[in-house]
Amino acid sequence: MDNIIVELTGASKTYRQLDALKQIDLSLPEGQVLGLFGHNGAGKTTMMKLILGVISPSAGKVSVFGKSPDSKEAWHLREKVGYLPENVSFYEHLTGLEVLTYFARLKGYNKKAALALLEQVGLTHAMKRQVKTYSKGMRQRLGLAQAFLGEPKLLLLDEPTVGLDPIATKEFYQTVDQLKTQGASIILCSHVLPGVEQHIDRAMIMSGGQQLAIGTLSELRQQAALKVSIKPTGLNGSLLQDTQLAQYWCADSDALLVPEDNKVEVLRQLLAYEHVNDVAVSPASLNQLYQFYLDQKVAVKEAN
Amino acid sequence: MKQILTVANKEFHDGLRNRWFISITLIFAILSLGLAYYGTAVSGSVGVASLSSTIASLASLAVFLIPLIALLVSYDSFVGEQESGTLLLLLTYPISKTQLLLGKFVGQGSIIALATLLGFGASAGMLGYQQGYANVLPAFSLFIGSAILLGLSFTAIAYSISLLVSEKSKAAGLALILWFLFALVFDLALLAVLVSTEDVVSQSGLTQLMMLNPADIFRLVNFAGLESADVNGALAVAINSSISQGQLFALLGAWVIGPLLIAIFIFRTRKL
After folding, report:
1. A177 and A275 inside one domain
2. CATH at residue A17
3. Which of B2, B89, B96 sits opposite A83 (nearest CB)?
4. What pLDDT is attached to residue B235?
5. The whole model's pTM is what?
6. Would you list which residues of chain A are within 8 Å, Cβ to Cβ, of chain B?
7. Whose CA, among A82, A125, A220, B132, lies 20 to 30 Å from A231?
């Protein structure tokens, strides 16, 4: 059985009249990356705070490394947790090295660990400059270095790629993959969906404090029954004359939209054409899945 | 303990870096040297004032300045970190709320304590050189010791303010109001009560009322041992009461620990 790192059972959080989180069930095994998606106010940050033990659930149970994260027993386990908050603004008057050394010491590490991490995130050249002179991307990299302190076994990253340029984003995902290989469990919280798909094992879609869907991307695609986009090139209109294939043709996307179950059959038919140069197969994107579940929620609400 | 020292070290260095330490030390040194040298100017002569009147003048000024400086140094300690997002981040580290608060208190308290010691110590050194250290040192030790406790007390009070509000500007406004109440309004109100009720408030009753204000306890500690000519008003009445200097020091200490415990309680129950 997988070693479960984070487990939420019917976890809810209520602030006075506001239900910030409703009946969340989640179990995150060791070495798995979970993508947590939702618009502003969906409850992502509240869920992260519950997992971090900064707030306590109003109902249900939260367990991290087998302990309630807001309890005293779980206190020393915080050394194994890394967290990057959204829009964190570090001590502006301190240098990057001073900021990271401060956080490293609080986790029981020394300046050496801070120096190594600054090198890893590419901030060595600016480590003696005050944080107030840093660009948004540099601040984000400093935040990531802070989250990576002490090789955490559980990482919670809130909008980690905001402000990062494409190269830094790529490097960030490489680090995520590396940490995952080392056995770290990671929760990636994001509004920015493109690029994240290949780095997550499962996705959780939230809205209004509710869990709309959770599963691997293929499970979610299957559940949503969203069609696969197949785009052949080199057929020059002969496609529309094929009555079997023409039924899938979608002029808007200039591609065939095929149910997942018929994908292989359609591909076979396409490959039988002599002039076909290329066939691009794109399953429903995370963005489409996200939109599907949000629309479904709105439809259910309107029906009620 | 290690966590407390880590936070204290950062706060202390912040105090050095943002010039709080040097500014406070200079203000205190200039004031104390000026008062020691030119304190007699009002009587028409320039020269070293008597020890008693120097301490009286210093205490009269310090009672306004120290609370204000302590509040200014500490009012944004928590609300500032909350606004920038570092408070939430810090609380995900293996550090408890109490440790974080105590760490800040040790660091910022050290800045205030060291600045008070060096700033007022300058005039103690100068007066001791001229009048003999045997007289000057005990009197100044008492003054500096009580001034440090007064500063620490208002630092702890500032923490409660910083933890109660959600915006830095509100904390600044509240800190200013509190300073105004403790440093000015309280004594005026006390005087008004004393005058209007005549014999209703006894001497011991008045002294007990003064214990509700750390600034007044500071005054009592410093004026109790002075020549009566340097002290007047409500204080003169209170000084004749039976509270010893040791007890007054203990009360001033309680005004440090009490607000600190209140701040810890607020922090622990505060929602993030």
Report:
1. no
2. 3.40.50.300
3. B89
4. 59
5. 0.83
6. 15, 49, 52-55, 75-76, 78-79, 81, 83, 85, 87-91, 93, 102-103, 105-108, 146
7. A220
Kindly indicate the confidence band of residue B177, based on its pLDDT and cuts at 50, 70 and 90.
very high
Q: Is the pLDDT of residue A259 over 90?
A: no
Q: Measured between alpha carbons, how far is B154 from B166 in angstroms, rounded to an integer?
A: 20
What is the radius of gyration, based on Cα positions, of chain B?
A: 20
* Inter-chain CB proximity B90 and A108 less than 8 Å: no
Arithmetic mean of pLDDT, A8-13: 89
Question: What is the pLDDT averaged over residues B7-23?
Answer: 88
| Contact between chains at A83 and B84 (C-beta distance less than 8 A) | no
Same domain (yes/no): A165, A81: yes
Chain A residues within an 8 Å CB radius of B95: 106
Asked if B93 and A108 come within 8 Å (Cβ–Cβ), the reply is no
Q: Determine the residue among B93, B100, B166 to mutate to test chain A binding: the one whose Cβ has the most chain A Cβ atoms within 10 Å.
A: B93
pLDDT at A197: 83
Q: Distance between CA atoms of B127 and B51, rounded to whole angstroms?
A: 8
pLDDT of B37 higher than 60? yes
* Domain boundary residue, one of A169, A187, A221: A221
Residue among A54, A85, A102 minimizing CB distance to B85? A85
- Given this model, what pLDDT does residue B240 score? 59
Q: Do A277 and A144 sit in the same domain of this protein?
A: no
Residues of A in contact with B271 (CB under 8 A): 15, 55
Q: Are residues A149 and A276 in the same domain?
A: no
Contacting residues for A21 by C-beta, under 8 A, at least 6 apart: A11, A12, A13, A43, A46, A47, A50, A57, A209
* Cβ <8 Å between A103 and B271: no
Q: Which residues of B touch A75 (CB under 8 A)?
A: 94, 96
Q: Do residues A230 and A267 lie in contact, with contact meaning Cβ atoms separated by under 8 Å?
A: yes
Beta carbons of B88 and A85 less than 8 Å apart: yes
Last residue of a domain, one of A199, A221, A243: A221
A59 and A177 housed in the same domain: yes
Residue A102 lies in a domain: no
- A254 and A179 in one domain? no
Do A157 and A82 lie in one domain? The reply is yes
- Structural domain containing residue A191: 4-91+137-221
Residue of A nearest to B2 (CA): A106
SS (H, E, C) A170-202: HHHHHHHHHHHHCCCEEEEEECCCCCCHHHCCE
User: CB–CB of A137/A168 below 8 Å?
Assistant: yes
Q: Which of B84, B89, B78 is nearest to A84 (CA)?
A: B89
Count of domains in chain A?
2
pLDDT in tens, B65-93: 999 999 998 999 999 999 888 998 999 99
Structure token digits, residue A87: 């829009």
Question: What ipTM does the predicted assembly reach?
Answer: 0.83
What residues contact residue B221 under an 8 Å CB cut-off, 6+ apart? B142, B146, B245, B248, B249, B252
Judgement on whether residues A86 and A22 belong to the same structural domain of the protein: yes
